Amino acid sequence: MAKHNDIGKEGEKVAREFLVKRGLKIIELNYWRKWGEIDIVAQETMGNLGRRVEIIHFVEVKTTNRDYSEGDIDRWRPEEMIHNNKIKRLKRVIQTYILENDVEDWVFDVLIMYLNKRTRTARCKYIKDIVL
After folding, report:
1. How far apart are CA 11 and CA 49, in angstroms?
2. pLDDT, tens digit, for every residue of 56-83?
3. Of 31, 47, 102, 123, whose CA is between 20 and 30 Å from 56?
4. Strand partners, 106
């Protein structure tokens, strides 16, 4: 496996832990169809006037292992790597999941993971409810 794939897998592992700590339940990892893939499918259960609502989160994880400091996080933006072709593939695979699983309420999120292998730390930037 290529080094960048190892970094991506590590970022997805930390991302799962991040989401679970925030109360989301991981439903599926690396949901794949020949036209695209979504890294994490998670479920959030919310109460709404006595009624429980389940919201599906489609989460794209972008990971970098650059050494970072406060200023570096603002300059290096891995989310900019989500280009137009990637967005088209994400839309298609999300539509497929929605149809296959009869999903009503959903959102698209991006979770940026900054991993520092030297200090064995991670920082997360969670961008929620993005319009595709």
Report:
1. 36
2. 999 999 988 765 555 555 565 666 677 8
3. 123
4. 56
Asked, for residue 104, whether it belongs to a domain, the answer is yes
| Reported pTM | 0.85
108-132 confidence digits (pLDDT tens): 999 998 888 778 788 888 999 998 8
Asked whether residue 132 is assigned to any structural domain, the reply reads: no
Looking at the structure of the chain, the number of domains it has is 1
Is residue 8 classed as helix, strand or coil in its secondary structure?
Answer: helix
Average pLDDT estimate for 35-56: 89
Task: Write out the residue range of the structural domain in which residue 104 sits.
Answer: 3-127
Q: CB of 92 within 8 A of CB of 35?
A: yes
Largest CA distance in the chain: 49
Q: Please check whether residue 108 is in contact with residue 60, taking contact to mean a CB–CB distance below 8 angstroms.
A: yes
